[in-house]
Design a protein that fits this description.
The chain is an alpha+beta fold. It contains seven helices and ten strands. It has a four-stranded antiparallel sheet with strand order 2-1-3-9. Helix 1 crosses helix 6 and helix 3 packs antiparallel against helix 4. It starts with a helix and ends with a helix.
Length: about 210
């Protein structure tokens, strides 16, 4: 399979940020957010982007998380202090066997365990990438990677196959490895604070 040709054929025109929806799960009480089964709301990309840029709770959690330097403490803190989304679309429940996702035409590629220098150079390179239509991008909660939302056509290619194609492209073009576990469209994504998050102006300005 030619990765670049596959991506070029399956990318669709950039939609409106107000019509791309994800399922949002709020952290309530002292339990793990990962145990929440039913979404609190369906958010469009404009709402999600504004949350990432400005939410004070997410800012406080993100800044504190990055001071821990202990993997077990980091994992525990993330589960109890961050909200999450299903980046690939919307669903009624996260309960296994019933977690059918309605695709939103966005594939969230998770690149982690890279240096800050590489993270920032990759961030800038992907904004100008001529192959990928990056609609949204932000730094991961711990700051060691990027969440990269790429537009695709779910009628032409599955989420998993597109994730694999983009992962291959990123590896051969930029030398970074995407997390294979995130190729499942039901995979959840914690929402950090990132006041320098990127959204494609052609979808936000509509």
């Amino acid at each position: 399979m030619n990765t670049i040709n596959t991506l070029s054929e399956d990318i669709i025109p950039i939609p409106d940020a107000e019509t791309i929806y994800v399922s949002y799960f709020v952290q309530l009480g002292n339990g793990s957010v990962f145990k929440r089964m039913k979404p609190s709301a369906q958010w469009n990309f404009k709402t999600l982007y504004n949350y990432i840029k400005t939410n004070e709770s997410a800012k406080n959690a993100t800044e504190y998380l990055r001071t821990l330097n202990d993997e077990d403490k980091e994992k525990e803190f993330k589960a109890h202090n961050f909200d999450l989304i299903i980046p690939g679309g919307t669903l009624k429940t996260r309960q296994r066997g019933k977690n059918h996702v309605t695709p939103n035409g966005e594939c969230c590629i998770d690149v982690d365990h890279i240096s800050v220098e590489l993270r920032e150079s990759l961030f800038l390179d992907l904004i100008d990438d001529e192959v990928l239509d990056v609609d949204l991008m932000f730094r991961s909660p711990r700051g060691h990677g990027l969440k990269i939302f790429v537009c695709y056509n779910p009628d032409e290619i599955s989420y998993k196959d597109f994730y694999t194609a983009v992962s291959n492209y990123l590896f051969f073009t930029y030398g970074v490895v995407a997390d294979k576990a995130c190729s499942d469209i039901t995979h959840a994504c914690l929402i950090p604070w990132d006041d320098n998050a990127y959204i494609n102006s052609s979808i936000y300005g509509k």
